[in-house]
Every structure is written in C-alpha cells, then in structure tokens.
C-alpha cells in the first residue's frame, strides 16, 4: 500500500516514512502540489497535515486530497472543530503527532482499507487528559487499558484476561480515579495514548 505524506515538517515526514515502511507500507513524503492533480494514480492513502497547505482552508484541502485517495489527517492536538470539518469534507480519520507507532499503523491500515479511524481525544477536545508515566497504574490495570485502546468491551476483556466482568469494572474505576478521567471518551483517549503493556494471561495480578 502506497501512502503519500503531505506535511510541513520535512524531518517529521521522513520519520513517518521510516515508521510506516517498517510497518509494511510504501510511504513517501510529497509536495502539497499533488492535491492539484486529481488524476494521480498509484496512491492508496494520503496522510495530510492541514498546516502544509496554509493557502487552503481545511475543508478545501481535505476535499482535494479525498478526490485522489482516502485521507488520514495529521494534527498537532485534539481539536473537535478539525474533526468536524475534516470528517464533513471527506477525511476517513484523524491522528495526532504524538500517537504511538502501533496506533498510527492501525489508523493508516484502517483508512486505506475503507474504514474510519477517529481518535476519541478529538471528541474531548483541548481538555483531553494528560497521560502520566506507566508506573501510576498496576500491571493488570495497564493490561485492561491495552485492551480498551483496541476497542474491546468489558465482557471481552474479562474473557481474555480470565477474570470476572465485575473485576474488570473495578480496574476501570481504579484507572479513572488514578488518571482523573470521567466519561468514556476521556478513558478511551487515555487508553489510546497510555504506554502499551502487552497482556499476559489471567493470573490474578493486582
């Protein structure tokens, strides 16, 4: 899958190229001029930083890019307005520059395959909770967070970790209390950004 990267920061674009290449994509940085070429072929997806085309409003830049290939917006921070405008203009997803590598790869793959990937932090906006160090949570709490970041329900997490749904609820309450998050959007936002901890098996860890 060939991914064109339209970004205002050349060094960051080269870094993205390397990261996506290691994830199995054929990624390459390109000029914003490609948005003027609706007949361009051979591109399976476009990562677009709106700042790279300051002469165009976001909706116009996204519309032009979407006429070429599925668009994944790359933003600086959670922004509900960008989410709304980008989605209405044809973007299939949004990720932020600080997102983890595995989340970035998942977002690109989902968008290229015709799906959508809208970061829950966008719904929270600039009030998105900060993500502290991994030492704040226990191993089991980090495992629960790992599954939440991948869209698993409480019931599914219970089956995977071989614990009861009630215990999963307890871990989630602890996480919310420790990290100061309230609603589901904030919890999903933190889960998506929290340092990843691969699950082990259900061994009654605290």
TrEMBL record:
- Note the InterPro entries from the entry: CheY-like_superfamily, Sig_transdc_resp-reg_C-effctor, Sig_transdc_resp-reg_receiver, Tscrpt_reg_LuxR_C
- The Response regulatory domain covers 2-112
Q: Which domain of life is it from?
A: Bacteria
Entry-linked SUPFAM superfamilies:
C-terminal effector domain of the bipartite response regulators, CheY-like
Q: Which residues form the signal peptide?
A: none
Transmembrane region(s): none
User: Does the UniProt entry include the keyword Transcription regulation?
Assistant: yes
Q: Which Pfam families match?
A: GerE
Q: Which residues form the HTH luxR-type domain?
A: 130-195
Q: Name the keywords, alphabetized.
A: DNA-binding, Transcription, Transcription regulation
Q: What is this protein called?
A: Response regulator transcription factor
Species whose genome carries this gene: Polymorphospora lycopeni
